[in-house]
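This part of the workshop introduces the protein records we will be handling. A learned vocabulary of local backbone shapes supplies the integers on the structure line. Getting from the letters to the tokens is the skill we practise here. As an example, a complete record with its sequence and its structure tokens follows.
=====
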Amino acid sequence: MNKNLLSFTPRGIYCKPAGVYLDPWRPVKKALITHGHADHSRWGHKQYITQHNNIPIIKHRLGDISVSGYNYGESFRINNVEFSFHPAGHIPGASQIRVSHKGETWVFTGDYKVTDDHISTPFEPVRCHSFITECTFGIPAFNWRPQKEVFDDMNTWWAANQKEGRTSVIFAYTLGKAQRVLKHLDTSIGKIYTHGAVEKMTAVLREQLELPETHLITRETDKKEVKGNLILAPPSTHGTVWLRRFAPFVTGTASGWMAFRGARRRRAVDKGFVLSDHADWHGLLDAVKATGCEKVITTHGYTEIFSRYLREQGYDAHPEATQYEGENLEANETE
């Protein structure tokens, strides 16, 4: 077994035989990128390689970069090391990266979820010997409800607010979460208005997805026009002058962290919807099992707890430190 096919370095996860990095957090010559969130797709690399659908996303975020892409399941070689991207189900364009060399196969998940959100290519398990998995929500307390129930609650909440003459505000990450919410909103209730950052990213993704109509909020947008409808905005707009102009409104946050008692109060929102683009406890365990792997490396999240549990189940498991932050970083994004 090639124990050093992928290693953890100060710059990121490194494949020495190929001379490339996977989601590096410091500038490198050649980077394979799993998805477009800022903690996995950083500016400064000389060359980016990613899944084809992720190219317009990272170009929107990073500007004029040198980037090439491959379809899901399409193999390519770098210095005789075989790579391929496979659906991660996290957000549109998100991938796991399969790395194979001299009979040894590793899979790096980036971020993932096993629930089909109807905007991302659904997660597909990939057989491997070693599995590098995130565990953002890697404790048994996280057990997601069926997403239909969550969106039914969201639409019922919006309708009730409208009857009371109040505008509904949903805080959601600009990339992935906002479009997932948008996809499942009941447009028969009213119109959907968007913050500029949400609107710009949604416009990029409309090239790949069918999404409901939205209305961009500008300086000229009339408060009376928005009243009773719904605003999709980044979490960073909470408490800002931009938002206060639309009072009276009711706020809600869509996040996996809403599963924790007191999270809604700490974030000072009126309603919490437990909705995550990461796998829950059972999703993580199912994903590990489906790979048939022997070795598991846990990154970002409840790494110690999750790896300890896996060792009890007979896996060779241990955590590794990275600079990925999952929902903690995404919550502060405006672009």
In short: The chain has two domains: 7-142+278-330, 147-273. Residues 7-142+278-330 form a domain with the Metallo-beta-lactamase; Chain A fold (CATH 3.60.15.10). The CA atoms of residues 203 and 225 lie 22 Å apart.
